[in-house]
Request: fold
Amino acid sequence: MTATPYQQMIFLNLPVDDLDASKAFFTALGYSINAQFSDENAASVVISDTIVAMLMTKPFYATFTDKEIADARKTSEVLICLSAESREKVDELVDRAVAAGGTASDKVQDPGFMYGRSFDDLDGHTWEVVWMDPAAIQG
Reply:
């Protein structure tokens, strides 16, 4: 019997101003909230089987760090990049983010073998969405 390889997960812990508004934003993008790991201080947004965004109220987030919490509207703390299965799926997700109150970047990456756009969520966190041609990835 062969053991199933361990699937490492990533948990993005993001401070938010308004937890309910942020939950509504990410739900509008098509993601679900895992109620088992959500309460009045945090919401567990399931992006995929291996990616979870933990949206945390700023006071709760502050209990995990002694550092000042960055204002993502003014400083770049991190660029979060998600893959997409096609160019159309890139546009679809960014367009849904804008419709839900996010802000799209005017920059489009399109060197031919890949296509990408980005948006800022309600708290200014930047999310990039990128499609890469499978033939280009294979070499």
